[in-house]
Amino acid sequence: LMGAIIGFFAKIIAYPMSFIYKFVDSYGLAVILLTVLIRALMIPLYAKQMKSTAKMAELSEKQKEIQVRYARDKETMNQKLTELYQENGVSTYAGCLPLVIQLPILMGLYELLRNPLQYMLESNMLAAVHESFLWVADLSQPDAWVFPLLAGITTYLTTAIGTASADNSAAGAMNAMKYFMPIMIFLLGRSLPAGLSLYWFMGNLVMVVQNLIFNNKKKKEKEQKAVEEEVQKRMKKAN
């Protein structure tokens, strides 16, 4: 059953890959453009995830108060925390949804790179999977160092940026993941097809840019809010 599910996603990915390849005539570039396309389609989900993370940070003090007050009553504590999140429009599942969507894409791309004969729609794409790209002789084979290392570094960056905007209760777990995940991604990348490491690296790179833009926007909003509050205080004193 799992093989059929993975094969289904491989067939779906084969369509845009074939379409993009017709224009760029490079499998490596096709993987990069597919990554950018997928990330662009997922922008609303990532925006919701980042807003939810930022909101959780703002509610950290209230969250601590509830945890201290109901420390001996876990059921009531969870109920109060749920009410707090609902009142402030925070979704505890927002951070998981992008990853849940990414998993079938990764599995499908892995299967597509490993068994192109079963899924590619056009004969010219069968050889394309085995094309060289930059220093990689065959994208269907593992790249020993560079792409896995780039995938690991960008994984660290995305987690580090996420830790900076997380609330204190979540920051501890995220700090542990900040070092564990990059190492795991690097080691996995050395044994998986280079095309998969390329996809992961590019996806992380796009996410880093998205996070930097969001954090910059959030910083400006905070500065503007602080200025407005200062103006209101001065006006009250003047009156």
Structure explained in plain terms:
This protein has 239 residues and is mainly alpha-helical. Helix content is 80%, strand content 0%. It has eleven helices and no strands. 27% of the residues are buried.
Jot down its keywords.
239 residues; mainly alpha; 11 helices; elongated
Q: In brief, what are we looking at here?
A:
This protein is mainly α and 239 residues long. The chain has helices at 2-24, 27-41, 43-58, 60-69, 74-87, 97-114, 116-119, 123-128, 146-164, 168-189, 194-238.
| Low-pLDDT runs | none
Radius of gyration: 22 Å
Q: Which shape, going by the Cα principal axes?
A: elongated
Can you summarize the main beta sheet? none
User: Distance between termini?
Assistant: 73 Å
Put simply, the count of helices is: 11
Structural class: mainly alpha
Amount of beta strand: under 5%
- Portion of residues within helices: over 70%
| Average residue pLDDT | 81
Write down the secondary-structure element order: HHHHHHHHHHH
Strand segment count: 0
